[in-house]
């Protein structure tokens, strides 16, 4: 119900606040535009020739519902974490060639912040500008369905396209996730790193802890011992690793404790860019969580 309500409110909000764009314009989104949901046309260019660069694969999943493959590029390759990424000269060329750049924001991608200031003539759509809850300090904004819906609507406007079908698909994926996750909401789990707070909030899940705040910060011996004590208490049904990182840390902490192991990928790297890629990503995330969290019969 939350996402269906968000879809309705978002549609009404855009009707009253957003300046409509012709099909032959794209938009520059500035800080004041983010504040009131408006975008302003600044160049005559058809949506058929506009080049869109998504900084990360999950953002590419969002953009792919609007942008043909020949016009869509993804900066960080699938399977590569933004935490480990650094720009090469060829990547800077790809940034220069793009008309619209959709990115998470400076917290996850500080290497793009300087280019956003240097090239204000391009459209920069930062997901961080649409954050819903100040209490959630997690820059993985694509795991918030509400943030995703707003970013998609902004991109659709910039391209002179319609966001309604995507919003319906996301609402259905949310309903599915809510249904399958409901029986395991009380089951505690550990995640590899602090990437799922928006998703956990959306579905009221019981995330007990994480092995590391960020992949760059490995826990010390004292922290590992505290995590093992927490796992021994029996309140954790599953521990989730991530495909981008070695499972060594998870194995070291869990040892021979009787805890199930699963895998979650906050980047959806195994999912192909397609019109329904993002809704599939939401369903796949829910299915993977349920498979590990469900009680054995």
What does this structure look like?
- There is one protein chain.
- This protein is an alpha/beta fold and 297 residues long.
- The protein folds into two domains: 2-173, Nitrogenase molybdenum iron protein domain (Rossmann fold, 3-Layer(aba) Sandwich), CATH 3.40.50.1980; 184-293, Rossmann fold (3-Layer(aba) Sandwich), CATH 3.40.50.
- It is built from eleven helices and ten strands.
- The chain has helices spanning 2-17, 31-36, 57-63, 89-97, 110-118, 145-159, 164-181, 197-203, 221-232, 248-254, 277-293; strands at residues 25-28, 40-44, 52-54, 72-74, 100-103, 123-126, 189-193, 207-212, 238-241, 260-263.
- Strands 4-3-5-6 form a four-stranded parallel beta sheet. Strands 8-7-9-10 form a four-stranded parallel beta sheet, sandwiched between helices.
- Helix 1 packs parallel to helix 6 and helix 7 (164-181) packs parallel to helix 11.
Q: What's the oligomerization state?
A: single chain
Arrangement of strands in the largest sheet: 4-3-5-6
Which runs of at least 5 residues are low in confidence (pLDDT < 50)? 5-28, 34-44
Major sheet details: 4 strands, parallel
Percent strand equals 5-15%
- Count of the domains: 2
Look at the structure and name the CATH superfamily of the largest domain. Nitrogenase molybdenum iron protein domain
CATH topology of the largest domain: Rossmann fold
Helix-strand makeup class: alpha/beta
Q: Give the C-alpha Rg.
A: 20 Å
Fraction of residues in helix? 40-55%
Number of helices: 11
The CATH architecture of the largest domain can be named as 3-Layer(aba) Sandwich
| Number of beta strands | 10
Q: Which descriptor suits the 3D outline?
A: globular
Mean pLDDT: 85
